[in-house]
């Protein structure tokens, strides 16, 4: 096997990094909510804790500042004196008053009095700011937890694709499966072939157009049943996806011998709606030329038992050799 750089990993991660954004990096801040959702969990938790910690300390300092400027700290124990906030003697008590107010705990020992207009204004500001921060951060965490990315981990693709005959036609095939009992609603599959442009790729792999444009990662669609509706999947059991190699296929000139010298990558994209949440889920994988087996077929995984069909996932990736002509469809 020839190890080389993949465009899409087997687990669906795209090996593309964006660099030298320059002034365009400010676009991330213009869509701050999506930026936070896209961050890794450790950064989300760090920002979540940091934001609340800073907000608490700042607001508690403002309450302590009001008490200090009014002289409440010096006369807090005077029974005849009416402070802005009752029973606030120092910064820890001001911090506790803020937490009790923000969390609507209401122990009753500390409370704001009506003779403190600046405290009333600060109380209103704290309520508005707290609602905004809660809605933003908690909403961000909720969206991140409810993302259907983990659902894609229970969608399986065969480790290899195969080329063999089906109904007298040479076909490229691979297998998909759903490990959960919950269905993928409106599941649809698409395939992209990524390789250098064929014209110059045969002459040296430069992937140039007649005008000299360099196209090393040209993308073209592989027909997996768009016209017949075969790309719309009822994914309750493992299915074998088939691409018929004909005159319209980019593999029209592919033979068993030329497969050894080709360099391409087939990206498979499976999309559907998660039945339990109603959110759209996408699972991806890819097959390089080393992962395409000529003259193989997948082993059956379905068997009929007493009142139900049983799927044996231990044979999900297994293939066996079948007689297949080594010639291309063109030949």
TrEMBL record:
Site (Role in the control of polyamine-mediated channel gating and in the blocking by intracellular magnesium): 134
Sequence intervals crossing the membrane: 45-66, 120-143
Record keywords, A-Z: Ion channel, Ion transport, Membrane, Potassium, Potassium transport, Transmembrane, Transmembrane helix, Transport, Voltage-gated channel
GO biological process, one term: regulation of monoatomic ion transmembrane transport
GO cellular component, one term: plasma membrane
Inward rectifier potassium channel C-terminal domain span: 155-330
Residue stretches making up the Potassium channel inwardly rectifying transmembrane domain: 8-148
Topology relative to the membrane: Multi-pass membrane protein
MF annotations from Gene Ontology: G-protein activated inward rectifier potassium channel activity
PANTHER family: G PROTEIN-ACTIVATED INWARD RECTIFIER POTASSIUM CHANNEL 1, INWARD RECTIFIER POTASSIUM CHANNEL
Family: Belongs to the inward rectifier-type potassium channel (TC 1.A.2.1) family. KCNJ3 subfamily.
Identification of the protein by name: G protein-activated inward rectifier potassium channel 1
Species whose genome carries this gene: Climacteris rufus
């Amino acid at each position: 096997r020839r190890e080389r750089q993949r465009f899409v990993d087997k687990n669906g991660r795209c090996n593309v990094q964006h660099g030298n954004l320059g002034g365009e990096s400010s676009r991330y801040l213009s869509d701050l909510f999506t930026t936070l959702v896209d961050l890794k969990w450790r950064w989300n938790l760090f920002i979540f804790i940091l934001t609340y910690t800073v907000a608490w300390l700042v607001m508690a300092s403002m309450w302590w500042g009001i008490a200090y400027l009014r002289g409440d700290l010096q006369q807090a124990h005077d029974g005849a004196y009416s402070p802005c906030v009752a029973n606030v003697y120092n910064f820890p008590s001001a911090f506790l008053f803020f937490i009790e107010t923000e969390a609507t705990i209401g122990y009753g020992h500390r409370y704001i009095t009506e003779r403190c207009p600046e405290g009333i204004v600060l109380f209103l500001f704290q309520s508005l700011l707290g609602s905004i921060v809660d809605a933003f951060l908690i909403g961000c965490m909720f969206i991140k937890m409810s993302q259907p990315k983990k659902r894609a981990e229970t969608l399986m693709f065969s480790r290899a694709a195969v080329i063999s005959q089906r109904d007298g036609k040479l076909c490229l095939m691979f297998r998909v499966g759903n490990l959960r009992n919950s269905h993928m609603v409106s599941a649809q599959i698409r395939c992209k072939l990524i390789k250098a442009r064929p014209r110059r790729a045969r002459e040296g792999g430069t992937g140039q157009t007649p005008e000299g444009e360099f196209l090393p990662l040209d993308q073209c669609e592989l027909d997996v049943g768009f016209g017949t509706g075969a790309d719309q999947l009822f994914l309750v059991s493992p299915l074998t996806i088939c691409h018929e190699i004909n005159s319209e296929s980019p593999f029209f000139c592919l033979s068993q011998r030329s497969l050894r010298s080709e360099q391409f990558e087939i990206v498979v994209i499976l999309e559907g709606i998660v039945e339990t949440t109603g959110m759209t889920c996408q699972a991806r994988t890819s097959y390089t030329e080393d992962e395409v087996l000529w003259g193989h077929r997948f082993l059956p995984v379905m068997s009929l038992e007493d009142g139900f069909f049983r799927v044996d996932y231990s044979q999900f990736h297994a293939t066996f050799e079948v007689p297949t002509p080594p010639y291309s469809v063109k030949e």
